[in-house]
Specification:
Elements: E1 16-20, H1 26-38, E2 54-58, E3 70-75, E4 85-90, H2 91-99
Length: 100
């Protein structure tokens, strides 16, 4: 009848991954880790069931994070024809707020 394989809740075919984070960039490393945790790289992926693998990160103290990047948010206030508004977003001060 239904030939599509849907894993049950206690689906136990998970793998363990150990990833060394030494001198790796945070964004590039997260793009590798997210498919492993969600299980989207598996053929038995189903969005309502957790089929992701286990991930252990070692040397996470040595991740490379750019603290001194200045970013600007450009947005329109909503009325057509008006000029764009630019607000400064300093990641250094916002990063410090998150750490405290």
């Amino acid at each position: 009848m239904n030939k599509t394989f849907i894993p049950v809740v206690n689906y136990n075919k998970r793998k363990w991954y150990i990833i060394d984070c030494k001198n790796k960039q945070l964004g590039r490393l997260s793009s590798i880790i997210i498919p492993l945790l969600t299980g989207k790289s598996k053929s038995v992926y189903h969005p309502s069931i957790d089929v992701g693998d286990y991930v252990i990160l070692i040397n996470s103290d040595h991740l490379q994070i750019d603290h001194d990047v200045e970013r600007f948010h450009v947005y329109q206030p909503g009325r057509p024809g008006t000029s764009l508004k630019i607000s400064e977003y300093n990641t250094k001060t916002n990063y410090r707020k998150l750490c405290l």
